């Protein structure tokens, strides 16, 4: 049997200029981290491809699952490696298709090695004609049952058809850090995922109202993070008790402003935590118009006193699009488990949908919450959640 490897194509790294090798290094490191406990001998960069050598192809499904989690990966194939000549290529293709069930096929050659005497279309025709002759199957270029990939790279031919599709984007660790405000709802895990996809490394902060609410939201967040740590392997969670602040707000302001004031407190505390951690951005799952607290005026009123960028990747998405991602990343089923959220637990029947910035600012000032905010940050504890325990 010819030796096998996994051939990986990256995504936007290919558009990088002078700093491309820095991105490639991070990408390779992240691949190695994901492949922990799976057999391989080396991971090597060759002509804008990453090759994982010395694999055990019987464990293909495990490699597939792991590599899908590496941000930056566009797609990858399980490949056999043969000498760069049409005879060996043809033999390997015939061997690979001999047990396969398909009606239509195509050959897709990429010729990185321009020294080879046939062009990509010429090799496609030659190998394709042989497949037609031996199997009597039809070529279908648009939507074939079987797409046989042949890549000619640095004097060798790589041949395979088993595809691993990734999420694209950029390797985690290339996009600095952000602090994600995570509830156990549907949206904030999806917002976090979208920024992980952009290479951002994330720490998480969760606010709870224990003992007025149960600890369920904290447990659900832990479960969600054990899913999201698939991509980042290890992440930090800061759980912060909000109850004392909420009580102060509820005792001293009209109920229609409570949620905005809770949110304002969350923003203020998160900003202090981000400062302490040396982090330069917050992430939320806010989505315009979804609920009362997410009108544009309320978002402004809640976030007007913090001077740190707030990334809101879901702002313009439809609920259905968000749900589809949540299902794909396997956080949806955890998010729909019943839990008492620290804000919804105390939501009045008619929250304001257009709070005035000045009004909210004045109320917050009279509540004198700053000392409490600082106290919470100086007592904050962290727990680390990792995917491969
Ligand atoms: P989610 O599904 O993420 O809970 P949501 O649609 O329920 O969002 P809200 O409850 O209004 O919306 O929350 C808006 C955003 O505020 C959330 O996406 C999250 O980023 C943040 N947030 C809400 N509750 C909490 C919490 N308990 N701890 C940390 N962040 C929170
Ligand atoms: Mg929520």
Kindly describe this structure.
This protein has 389 residues and is an alpha/beta fold. The protein is built from 13 helices and 14 strands. An 8-stranded mixed sheet has the order 2-3-1-4-8-7-5-6. Strands 13-12-9-10-11-14 form a 6-stranded mixed sheet. Strand 10, helix 6 and strand 11 form a beta-alpha-beta unit. The protein is elongated, with a radius of gyration of 26 Å. The mean pLDDT is 94.
- Unreliable sequence segments: none
How would a crystallographer describe the biggest sheet?
8 strands, mixed
Bound molecules: adenosine-5'-triphosphate, magnesium ion
Biggest sheet, strands in spatial order?
A: 2-3-1-4-8-7-5-6
Number of helices: 13
Strand % is 15-25%
- Provide mean pLDDT, rounded: 94
Percent range of helical residues: 25-40%
Distance between the termini: 35 Å
**How many distinct beta strands?**
14
Element-by-element helix/strand order: EHEEHEHEHEEEEHEHEHHEHEHHHHE
> Based on CA inertia axes, which overall geometry fits?
elongated
Helix and strand composition category: alpha/beta
Rg to the nearest angstrom?
A: 26 Å
Question: Secondary-structure blueprint of this entry?
Answer:
Elements: E1 4-10, H1 20-34, E2 42-46, E3 49-53, H2 60-68, E4 73-83, H3 86-97, E5 104-111, H4 120-135, E6 138-139, E7 146-153, E8 156-165, E9 177-181, H5 187-196, E10 201-208, H6 216-232, E11 234-241, H7 243-252, H8 258-277, E12 282-283, H9 296-303, E13 310-311, H10 319-328, H11 332-335, H12 357-367, H13 370-378, E14 382-386
Parallel strand pairs: 5-6, 5-7, 9-10, 9-12, 10-11, 12-13
Antiparallel strand pairs: 1-3, 1-4, 2-3, 4-8, 7-8, 11-14
The chain binds adenosine-5'-triphosphate and magnesium ion.
């Amino acid at each position: 049997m010819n030796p096998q490897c996994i051939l990986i194509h990256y995504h936007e790294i290919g558009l990088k200029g002078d700093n491309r090798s820095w991105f490639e290094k991070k990408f390779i490191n992240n691949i190695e981290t994901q492949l922990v406990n799976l057999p391989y001998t080396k991971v090597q960069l060759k002509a804008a491809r990453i090759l994982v050598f010395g694999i055990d192809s019987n464990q293909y499904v495990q490699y597939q699952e792991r590599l899908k989690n590496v941000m930056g990966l566009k797609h990858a194939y399980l490949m056999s490696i043969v000498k760069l000549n049409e005879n060996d290529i043809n033999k390997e293709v015939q061997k690979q298709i001999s047990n396969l069930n398909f009606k239509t096929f195509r050959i897709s050659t990429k010729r990185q090695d321009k020294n080879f005497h046939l062009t990509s279309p010429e090799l496609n025709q030659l190998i394709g004609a042989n497949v037609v002759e031996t199997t009597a199957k039809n070529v279908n270029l648009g939507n074939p049952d079987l797409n046989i990939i042949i890549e000619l790279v640095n004097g060798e031919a790589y041949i395979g058809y088993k595809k691993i599709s990734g999420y694209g984007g950029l390797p985690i660790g290339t996009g600095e850090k952000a602090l994600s405000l995570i509830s156990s709802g549907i949206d904030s895990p999806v917002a976090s995922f979208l920024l992980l996809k952009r290479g951002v490394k994330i720490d998480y902060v969760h606010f709870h109202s224990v003992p007025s609410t149960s600890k369920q939201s904290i447990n659900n967040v832990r479960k969600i993070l054990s899913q999201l740590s698939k991509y980042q392997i290890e992440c930090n969670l800061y759980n912060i008790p909000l109850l004392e602040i909420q009580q102060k707000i509820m005792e001293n302001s009209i109920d229609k402003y409570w949620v905005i004031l809770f949110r304002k407190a969350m923003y203020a505390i998160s900003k202090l935590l981000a400062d302490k951690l040396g982090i330069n951005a917050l992430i939320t799952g806010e989505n315009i118009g979804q609920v009362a607290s997410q009108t544009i005026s309320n978002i402004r009123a809640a976030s007007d006193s913090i001077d740190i960028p707030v990334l809101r990747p879901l702002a313009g998405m439809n609920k259905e699009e968000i749900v589809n991602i949540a299902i794909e990343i396997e956080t949806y089923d955890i998010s729909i488990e019943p839990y008492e959220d620290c804000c919804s637990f105390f939501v009045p029947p008619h929250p304001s949908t257009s709070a005035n910035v000045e009004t909210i600012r004045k109320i917050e000032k009279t509540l004198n919450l700053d000392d409490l905010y600082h106290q919470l940050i100086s007592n904050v504890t962290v727990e680390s959640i990792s995917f491969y325990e």
